[in-house]
C-alpha cells in the first residue's frame, strides 16, 4: 500500500482528496494535516510514502513545508497542489525537490496516477500544470537565451525533437504517442533520453528549452 499524507487547511478539500485516493486499491490515506507545520511533524512521526501539500496554508505554507520535510522526513515524496502556477512557487517547488506539481482541478485519475508515480520515485507534472507553468515562465526569449537553447537542442535527433515539441505544448506521454503514432512506453523512453541529453531534471525544464528555441510541433 502507498501511504499518503494530505495537508490542506480546508476540511472539505481534504475529504475530497481522501475519497479519490482511497478509491484506489493500492493507496491509503494514513494521515491529514491542517497546516504546513502539522504536515512536517506528522511526516516525521508517521510512516508516509507520499505527501500532498497545498500551497496556501496557515502557520506554514506548503512550499516552506516541502523544504522542511526534506530535512525532517527525506524519504517522503511530496506533491504540491495548487489552484495556480506562479513563477516563484513553481521554481521553489522544483528547487526543493518536489516530486510533482498538480493543479487542484486535475481529474481524479490524474491525482491517483501522480501519487503512484511519486511513490515509484518518478517526478510527475500533469499536462495541465505543464501548460500552465510553461505559459507562466516562458517570456519572449532574449537572443542569447534562444541561441543557447538551440545549441542544446542540436544534440537531439529529429524524432526526439518531435517529442520535445509536444512536451512544450504540455501533452502527456499518451497524447504525444497518439500524435506521433507511437506507444506511450516508447514516448516515455524518448522523454528519458531527451532529459539526459539536455541535462534537464524534469519535463518542464525541457519544455522551457523548447519554447526558448522556438521549437513547434510539425504543422504548428
TrEMBL record:
Q: Does the keyword Nucleotide-binding apply?
A: no
Domain (Response regulatory): give its ranges: 3-119
Query: Which residue numbers delimit the HTH luxR-type domain?
Result: 149-214
Q: Name one GO molecular function term.
A: DNA binding
* Cross-referenced CDD domains: LuxR_C_like, REC_NarL-like
One of the GO BP terms on file: regulation of DNA-templated transcription
Q: Specify whether Transcription is a keyword of the entry.
A: yes
Residues found modified as 4-aspartylphosphate: 54
Pfam families per the record? Answer: GerE, Response_reg
Q: Which InterPro entries match?
A: CheY-like_superfamily, NreC/VraR/RcsB-like_REC, Sig_transdc_resp-reg_C-effctor, Sig_transdc_resp-reg_receiver, Tscrpt_reg_LuxR_C, WalR-like
- Keywords, sorted A to Z: DNA-binding, Phosphoprotein, Transcription, Transcription regulation
The protein here is known as Response regulator
Query: What species is this protein from?
Result: Streptomyces sp. R17
Q: What is the lineage of its organism?
A: Bacteria, Bacillati, Actinomycetota, Actinomycetes, Kitasatosporales
Amino acid at each position: 500500500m502507498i501511504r499518503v499524507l494530505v495537508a490542506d487547511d480546508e476540511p472539505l478539500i481534504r475529504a475530497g482528496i481522501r475519497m479519490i485516493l482511497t478509491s484506489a486499491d493500492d493507496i491509503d490515506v494514513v494521515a491529514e494535516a491542517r497546516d504546513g507545520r502539522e504536515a512536517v511533524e506528522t511526516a516525521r512521526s508517521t510512516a508516509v510514502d507520499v505527501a500532498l501539500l497545498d500551497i496556501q496554508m496557515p502557520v506554514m505554507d506548503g512550499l516552506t513545508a516541502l523544504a522542511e520535510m526534506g530535512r525532517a522526513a527525506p524519504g517522503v515524496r511530496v506533491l504540491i497542489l495548487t489552484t495556480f502556477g506562479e513563477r516563484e512557487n513553481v521554481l521553489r517547488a522544483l528547487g526543493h525537490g518536489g516530486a510533482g506539481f498538480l493543479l487542484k482541478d486535475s481529474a481524479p485519475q490524474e491525482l491517483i496516477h501522480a501519487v503512484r508515480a511519486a511513490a515509484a520515485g518518478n517526478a510527475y507534472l500533469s499536462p495541465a500544470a505543464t501548460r500552465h507553468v510553461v505559459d507562466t515562465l516562458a517570456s519572449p526569449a532574449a537572443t542569447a537565451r534562444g541561441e543557447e537553447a538551440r545549441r542544446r537542442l542540436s544534440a537531439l535527433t529529429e524524432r526526439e525533437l518531435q517529442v520535445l515539441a509536444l512536451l512544450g505544448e504540455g501533452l502527456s506521454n499518451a497524447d504525444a504517442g497518439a500524435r506521433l503514432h507511437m506507444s506511450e512506453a516508447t514516448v516515455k523512453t524518448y522523454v528519458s533520453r531527451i532529459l539526459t541529453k539536455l541535462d534537464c531534471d524534469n519535463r518542464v525544464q525541457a519544455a522551457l528549452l523548447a519554447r526558448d528555441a522556438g521549437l513547434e510541433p510539425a504543422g504548428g
